[in-house]
């Protein structure tokens, strides 16, 4: 049965007595659900309260140091008979979250909430339990990522630092270091994430849990070679759906669309837990959208939401595809729902651009204001949303400000395809198309099949009067995904129309120019006049006449033959 995950279930607030102490998890969830502004509709939602700590869970914590220590078998839980019933009990939400984390898979939001409440309660009476603190900190990171509540980043950092104080990473607390790497990735500090991850890998090269954070860090830095190596190593150490998902993402980033699709389908087929299945279906929806197949994309996003109603990114993906199908009212509602459940600035930008394409400039400005507010709140929490802010500034604000933001990203070694594309486009918008060309080409040269990247490159090339490549890239954009943006896609078609049809025989830059006609061979020079004149018959008897052979030639040398004329 699909698990209906109430996304409104937030982790319990911390007790005022201790920064990490928790109030009763069930009481906190009930009260927070009542006031939660992001509450999901009650229809189909079921709350799964965390069970009270039993002797079984207490002994498990003490024995194995929770899931963050990485000592549970992947996905396997051994239930101890409590004497109630004939066999092992069904795993509760805490156990399910532990199993998912141990297997490298996402937990549902309700299970994640239960795990956080359970660990908060545990560390209240066991403040030096380093593994439980590491688990709590990492769970906070995941909650912040899944809810867009950046306030949890500070809690995560505090819990992870306390874990390292209780047990340094050098003494076996690598999971706290992995948690700090995940936190750095979530804040878009990919260089710090790389340092933490490589520190763990150096000490524990066989620990598979470090490779997902390394993959994210390398991808954010634009280091495709390192990301590929980390993905391959992860697949060697951790078989199954998580490795398939990472491999599909790798293929997607390199433009290997068929391989990405086949691998993503295998991941979806093999996924068993609702949250894991929903993520796999969401990936299939994204791939369909990028191929310009909005109907297929909507079907996959709908399937993801049926499987796990707490998978809120599928709401935004669904909205994007509905725009392409001209189901505008549904798209607006889906975007608004996505922003209520998962207030990410990129969703505000997309909704604002949709309003702008409809001529609703006031509504668009409202979304753009929200975008700025979200970016400012993220900055207070230590998260860097410069990329999405720069994308907004380039098209709707101050292009020079966008260039400044993105140059800072580039100097910080954030050199992914997304940053390269955004910087190239911002430079073009700021009147520096020649400089922007290099970055736009770099984004496209990664191989990723992104219609927006191709559009940006084509427009820049057209500005520089490089019409053949411009036409090619603009055609690539509208062919890859004809409705890639409600604002930019129509502009791409207008630019193509302005360029007109290519010359007969294909674009001129794709075929060599015709060879010049051969030079005419030189004609022989006419013979001297004296030689051309017919000679009069010699007088019969004249002692003074001279023979023709004795007459001197008027030229120094005879005319060259055609063959001789060709010789150097």
UniProtKB/TrEMBL annotation:
Location of the region described as Disordered in the Swiss-Prot/TrEMBL record: 1-56, 80-109, 497-568
Biased composition (Low complexity): 538-554
Composition bias type Pro residues, residue spans: 501-521
Transcription listed as a keyword: no
Keyword annotations from UniProtKB, A to Z: TPR repeat
Biased composition (Polar residues): 13-24
Residue ranges, compositional bias (Basic and acidic residues): 86-98, 522-534
First and last residues of every TPR repeat: 278-311
UniProt name for this protein: Tetratricopeptide repeat protein
């Amino acid at each position: 049965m699909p698990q209906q995950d109430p996304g409104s279930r937030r982790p319990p607030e911390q007790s005022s007595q201790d920064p990490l102490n928790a109030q009763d998890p069930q009481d906190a969830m009930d009260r927070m659900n009542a006031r939660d502004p992001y509450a999901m509709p009650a229809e189909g939602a079921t709350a799964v309260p965390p069970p009270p700590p039993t002797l079984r869970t207490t002994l498990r914590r003490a024995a194995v140091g929770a899931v963050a220590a990485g000592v549970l078998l992947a996905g396997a839980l051994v239930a101890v008979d409590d004497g109630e019933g004939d066999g092992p009990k069904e795993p509760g939400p805490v156990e399910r979250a532990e199993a998912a984390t141990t297997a490298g898979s996402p937990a549902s939001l309700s299970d994640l909430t239960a795990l956080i409440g359970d660990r908060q309660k545990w560390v209240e009476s066991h403040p030096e339990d380093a593994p439980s603190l590491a688990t709590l900190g990492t769970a906070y990171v995941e909650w912040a990522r899944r809810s867009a509540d950046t306030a949890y980043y500070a809690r995560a950092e505090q819990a992870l630092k306390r874990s390292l104080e209780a047990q340094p990473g050098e003494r076996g607390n690598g999971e706290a270091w992995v948690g700090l790497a995940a936190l750095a990735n979530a804040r878009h500090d990919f260089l710090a994430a790389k340092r933490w991850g490589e520190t763990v890998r150096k000490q524990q090269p066989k620990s598979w849990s470090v490779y997902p954070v390394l993959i994210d860090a390398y991808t954010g830095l634009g280091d495709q070679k390192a990301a590929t190596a980390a993905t391959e190593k992860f697949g060697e150490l951790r078989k199954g759906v998580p490795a398939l998902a990472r491999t599909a993402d790798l293929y997607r980033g390199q433009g290997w669309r068929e391989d990405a699709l086949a691998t993503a389908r295998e991941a979806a087929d093999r996924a068993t837990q609702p949250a894991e299945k929903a993520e796999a279906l969401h990936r299939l929806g994204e791939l369909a959208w990028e191929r310009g197949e909005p109907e297929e994309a909507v079907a996959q996003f709908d399937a993801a939401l049926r499987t796990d109603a707490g998978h809120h990114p599928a709401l935004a993906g669904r909205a994007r595809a509905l725009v392409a199908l001209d189901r505008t009212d549904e798209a607006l509602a889906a975007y608004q729902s996505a922003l209520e459940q998962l207030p990410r600035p990129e969703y505000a930008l997309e909704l604002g651009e949709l309003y702008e394409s409809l001529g609703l400039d006031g509504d668009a400005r409202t979304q753009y204001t929200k975008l700025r507010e979200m970016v400012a709140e993220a900055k207070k929490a230590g998260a860097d949303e410069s990329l999405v802010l720069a994308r907004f500034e380039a098209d709707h604000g101050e292009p020079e400000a966008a260039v400044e933001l993105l140059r800072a990203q580039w100097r910080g070694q954030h050199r992914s395809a997304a940053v390269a594309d955004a910087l190239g486009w911002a430079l073009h918008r700021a009147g520096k198309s020649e400089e922007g060309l290099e970055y736009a080409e770099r984004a496209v040269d990664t191989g990723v099949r992104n219609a927006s990247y191709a559009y940006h490159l084509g427009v820049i090339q057209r500005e520089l009067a490089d019409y053949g490549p411009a036409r090619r890239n603009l055609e690539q954009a509208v062919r890859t995904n004809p409705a890639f943006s409600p604002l930019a896609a129509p502009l791409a078609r207008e630019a193509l129309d302005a360029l007109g049809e290519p010359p007969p025989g294909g674009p001129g830059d794709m075929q060599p120019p015709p060879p010049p006609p051969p030079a005419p061979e030189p004609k022989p020079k006419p013979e001297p006049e004296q030689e051309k004149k017919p000679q009069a018959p010699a007088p019969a008897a004249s002692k003074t006449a001279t023979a023709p052979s004795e007459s001197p030639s008027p030229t120094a040398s005879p005319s060259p033959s055609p063959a001789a004329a060709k010789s150097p």
